[in-house]
Amino acid sequence: MANLFTRLKATVVADFHELLDQKEQKHPMTHLNQYIRNCEEEVKRLKQLIEKQYTIQQEYQKELQLANAMVEKRKRQATLAEEMNEEELVQEAIEELQHYQTRVNQLSEMADENKNQLSQIETKYVQMKQKLKDLYVKRLELRGRENIARVHKGMNNVLHTELLDKSESKFQDVENYIERLEQQVTTKYRLHTLDARFAELEKKVSTSK
């Protein structure tokens, strides 16, 4: 399982860079998110299998307890039959005792092996979850890098020389327009003032006659 996630992580990174190089129309982060969702589903599925294995371990222990109980029971019965000189019962009890003892040995080995396997599986499961966490962190890093790249790109567009030249030209056009308006206002004011002064002068001349 650990090797699976190691290969999967390597594939994710490789495919991500390949998608960036190819400049596909579909955002590469979409593919990365899909990989992570697949990993999450795999972790969930394996967790269910591990829980099932614990159930099997409990069944081993239950059967082992029953077999041990039968061993003790047949021992007592064999002893009782021997004390009562019941040779036939003694023989039957001993045969079943051997049968249950064999079962106890078999179940003990199976339970111990399953316990060891569970320990290994749990260790790998923890490693697998750590690998998944690594994918989360890697995705976060890539998202941060992408956002920073977008910020720099936007800033470069604003600070680009041609754009600045165009903006300066636009400001100059506005400034020239305002200056023309100011000149027109000043000229009209002067003309109005001059006409008013001549009108006053003409009025005085007319009155003096």
TrEMBL record:
Protein keywords: Coiled coil
Residues in the signal sequence: none
Keyword Coiled coil annotated: yes
Any Pfam family matching the protein: PspA_IM30
Top-level taxon in the UniProt lineage: Bacteria
Protein family membership: Belongs to the PspA/Vipp/IM30 family.
Record protein name field: Phage shock protein A (PspA) family protein
